[in-house]
Amino acid sequence: MNEPVASDTYAAHVRRLAELTGRVATQRAEAQAWHDQQCAAAERAVAQATAQVRDAEQEVTDARSMLERVDTEVGHLWAELRSRLGTRRLGDPPGPAREVTGDPVPLLRGVRELLDRTGQRGELPGSVNPLLALCGVAGAVVAYALGAGARAVGQRYGGDLAVGMPVLALVVTLLGPVAGLAPAKRLADRRHALLGPRPLAIVLATGVLTTVLLLVSTR
Question: For 122, phi and psi rounded to 5 degrees?
């Protein structure tokens, strides 16, 4: 009478064990799938983080390179400004301004263009016309004085010098108007200007007039 009951109990345990085994297998499969998903997500996160780190390192490298180029260009512009102003009291170039953003390349290009425009020489103003005329007069007077000295040497020593020195004196005297261009050029350089057609005409005209007056007055 007890054997069927034991057999039923055994069969129930087998079925229970089979159910538990299936449930464990299902949970194990779910756990494995969840683990695989988490591993894949972690790998993707690591890959993204690695790419972000790589991009950040490249940005740092590019920023450092840009900084070096900007510092070099600023140094060149500052040195050029100091040479233009002719002073060393400017000191070192200024450091980067705080809270300033944006690409510095266009700003540096604008500064370079501004320096180039200011570096272009203009013509001397009309206010220096008296000085230009004085240069022409001075050149003619100096040349005439040298010619007079050459004639005096020829007259003193005679011979071939008495023939050649007057010719040399005349050539030197006639070069007087051109001699005035040397101080006029220095005047233009000091004012960072060009010795244009108008200044040239003033120097040469006053030099020629002075030379003619000297030659006429000493005849």
Answer: -100, 180
